[in-house]
Amino acid sequence: MNYSMAKVVNGVVTEYPISEDTYKANVGLVQVVLPERKIVDAYTYIPSNPTLVNGQWVITWVKDENTPADIIALRTKNAEINVRYNRDMLMNEAEFRVSRYNRLSRLGKPQIDDIAKLDQYMQDLADVPTQPGFPFVIQWPTKP
Fold first, then answer.
1. Most distant CA pair in the chain: distance in Å?
2. Whole-prediction pTM value?
3. In degrees, to the nearest 5, what angle opens at C-alpha 72 toward C-alphas 68 and 73?
């Protein structure tokens, strides 16, 4: 959890973020909780003014509906590239195990992997781009 500072007078935030002069004066300052911003889409998110929640000053992240379409498109494309790269790396790792399974099978040796679980894992990886939150919210399959 990250923290910041805000100036509060009579229970109202009067300055956030604070200036260097306010920081030096150190009068009426409160600690503000900055929750991690989870990336769920390509929009820009801006911090709200802090609000008092259960005795702590907290900001929330607010979607900027005015985020330019070209920025959204670029962020989406970059996220797709990154997710597909990671997915392909995981598929390459699993492909080695499938290859080993086939080799051991041809040689009549005992198996190390369950091929049905590997096949399902490979299919689940292949299906990652069809997930509803793709490319920002991914439910990665568990390695067998």
1. 79
2. 0.75
3. 115
